[in-house]
Amino acid sequence: MDALKRKVIEDGVVIDESILKVDGFLNHQIDAGLMYEIGEVFHSQFGDQGVTKVLTIEASGIAPAIMVAHRFNVPCLFAKKAKPNTLNEGHYQTDVHSFTKNNTNRVIVSTEFLSDQDKVLIIDDFLANGEAALGLHRLAQQAGAETVGIGILVEKSFQPGRARLEEASLNVSSLCQVASLKGNKVTLLGDDND
Ligand code: 5GP
Q1: Nearest atom within ligand 1 for CA of residue 129
Q2: Which tens digits make up the pLDDT trace of 4-27?
Q3: Domains of the chain, first to last
Q4: Is any atom of ligand 1 closer than 6 Å to the C-beta of 79?
Q5: Which backbone phi and psi does 57 adopt, to 5 degrees?
Q6: pLDDT tens across 110-131, in order?
Q7: Is the CB of 161 within 6 Å of ligand 1?
């Protein structure tokens, strides 16, 4: 998706060889028009799959996911980070290791909002090791729901996330694929940016 690729190249800040900061349009300040367009693109890809719910994880997945959900005219559901002492009756739950924070969070979704009638489209901002997307897929499985696809805004293709999702037979679509962050520079897949 050209508009997103342009933003990543122009506004992305390389923190180190594995982390890209996108606070200018996605993770702090949000480009609403771009999120709207992202909804259109994922709808063109998954619109015939009978999606009943868009599932993401708080917090940074919510901005794109809500626009995707709006386009599909279905609810946007986000997995919440559970408080340590919360009793999790009435919830599906799983543990997700955070790549950027290097900690593990228990995340929950109420049984009220996900069931075996649902066809779920998982949306997230980044794909690194696939932990967040696989965790969301596990929540869908606990509910007996079907995961029809995974929509990612920025895939870091030098990390193993895509391979892990494909191993789990999940259909992954990424709008921007980053080949490398080496040399303090964003290089997209199939593009040396020279
Ligand atoms: P994964 O779960 O695939 O290992 O990592 C994806 C999750 O970690 C996303 O939900 C995203 O919030 C965060 N993340 C991973 N890599 C990056 C990165 O390079 N930049 C930012 N801003 N977030 C990242």
Answers
A1: 4
A2: 999 999 999 999 999 999 999 999
A3: 2-188 (3.40.50.2020)
A4: no
A5: -130, 140
A6: 999 999 999 999 999 999 999 9
A7: yes
